[in-house]
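hey m, so remember when u said the tokens were messed up on ur end? i reran from scratch. heres the input so u can diff it against urs
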Amino acid sequence: MLESKLTNIIVNGRPKKVEGDTISYTEVVELAYPGESNKGIVFTVTYMGPQMPDGTLTEGQSVEIRNGVKFNVNKTNRS
């Protein structure tokens, strides 16, 4: 039996384990705000991690992840 690779990441200060080498905007939002990614709310997702440049994820994008990558997910206010 093959064991899937788990990567340790931090989402809004909370440790999470995810499968694979990449994570999508929607997956990060779901980890931070379960059940709210499909409610039409806009989120700002930023990340920083070891041996990778800081960045921003937008809807439809994914990013390669490594152990210890930190994601900050905030609801965006639009006026």
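this time it looks ok to me. Residues 25-32 form the longest helix (8 residues). if urs says something different then somethings off w ur setup not the seq
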